[in-house]
Structure formats: structure tokens, C-alpha cells
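ligand=magnesium ion
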Amino acid sequence: MILVLLPAYNEEESLPQLMPKLQQTLSGMGEEFKILVCNDGSKDGTQAMLEEYSKQMPVEIIRHKINRGLGESSRDLFERASEIVQSGDVVVRLDCDDTHEPEFIPSIVAKIREGYDVVIASRFAPGGGQMGVNGYRAFISRCANLFMKVFFPIPGLKEYSCGFRGYRAEKIKEAIGFYGNNFIQLKGLGFTCTLEKLVKFKLINAKFGEVPFLLRYDQKQSASKMVSSITTLGYLVMTLLYHWPWGGWRTSIKNRHMDWTASNDKP
Ligand SMILES: Nc1nc2c(ncn2[C@@H]2O[C@H](COP(=O)(O)OP(=O)(O)O)[C@@H](O)[C@H]2O)c(=O)[nH]1
Ligand SMILES: [Mg+2]
């Protein structure tokens, strides 16, 4: 099965663009699929639209009455995903602002099935790129990626900040089983959770890969919800937590994961 995760906040303009393309791509892949959306306290017609779509395709909605932010929404999506999926399934998470084209899902899924745990749709892989990104945003994004490469290097990875990614079902179950409520700790810090997930998978020895991806920012209808000041603060907090010499994530999580793996291996 392919399980698609969509965090949605006030996306009534974008959903009518995205959902038919998603349905078309997924139904052409020859396996079962499901779309799990977190409607995070949207104040527009998102909920009504999603309920309508759920009559035409397999859509499950997690509804937050209050806007709780991307961190808490990601937590809920990944926790629910870990309950739904079985061995062999692939989970794909994308934005629903119509900048992440579903046509890239098959190559993400294929790469996961080659044996990767996390596959990132990469603007910086050969053949990838971006359209409609203004100079300021492109600069911020470059800085974020450079920052990640320096402080949280993952061999072979060029794209750190794009949230369009595939995950192997077993690795999601492992992550939720191991981290529990700490899978996403930096909840109030906006889009930091996209990077935190990467770091959390890195710490449990995930195998990362990339596939080329063209970001269609030119198709963006809704305003961006990324608050760069909060996200920057989040990066700094995460860097401190990770590299902190007295029990920082880098050493403490790795050690705990080794113990956890050893005890889980026992009959
Ligand atoms: N659940 C949830 N989703 C959000 C929130 N803010 C943004 N999103 C979703 O997260 C994705 C990324 O947001 P977006 O505005 O596209 O950011 P950008 O692409 O970086 O400009 C989109 O699918 C949004 O609908 C939020 O507070 N809660
Ligand atoms: Mg987006």
C-alpha cells in the first residue's frame, strides 16, 4: 500500500488542483492507496472539501479544531501512519499547496523499494530544480541547506529542507516505537519539524536517498505559512540540543537506540 500524508492548513485554493492529480497518479500505480490528511484548524473550506473528496477516494481526515502547527500535525500524521501501515508499504508526505507534483511519487516509491528508508524529492539532485521561487526565498533555502549540511551531515544528501519525502513503513514503525512522544520534540517551532524528522531518522541509522524533483512554486496559490524567524530559532535550538556535550541527542539517542535495538532483538 502507498499511504500519502498531507498536512493542510487553509488550503481550499490548492486542494482542487492537487487532489485529482493525486488520485490519478496513485490509482495508476497498481496498488492500494490511502490519503491521510491532517486538517489543522483551517478556517476556510478545507474541511468541507476533504469530506467531499473522502466520498470519491480513500481519504482519512485527522481534524484539529484549533491550529496546532506543523509539528503537532506531523506527529499525529506519523503516529497514525505507524498504526495503519504494514511491512512493504511506503509512506509519502507532501505539501498540499500544489507545489509538490504527485508525478514524482512513483520514483520515490521505487527508490524506497530498492532498500532505502527515507527518500527525499531533491531540487539539487541532477535533473531537479525549482520554478517560481523568488530570490529571497531561494537564498533562505540555500542557507538552511548549507546549515544542515554543516551541522547534521548525511552522506550523499543535497536536499535537507524539502518536505516531499518517502519513508519505508518499517522505519516509521521503528521511529515511533523507539521515540514515542519524542519523535517530534520541537513542536512549537514551526517548520523546524521537517528537519527534526530527518535528524531523528539519521540517529536511528536510516539509509537516505534522493530522487530528482522540480519544485513548482510558480503554482502556489495560498500564501506561504513558513515563518522564517521561528524556523531559524528552531534550527538553533535543535543544533544546541543535538551537539550539547552533556547528554546531547547525538550521543544519548544513539546509545539509547543501541540498547533498544539489542533488547528488541531478544527472543
Ligand atoms: N497541519 C498544518 N499544516 C500546515 C501548517 N502550516 C502550514 N501547513 C501545511 O504545510 C505545508 C507547507 O506549508 P507551505 O505554506 O506550503 O510552506 P512553504 O511551501 O514552505 O511555503 C502545506 O501543505 C501547508 O498546508 C499548520 O499550522 N498546520
Ligand atoms: Mg509548500
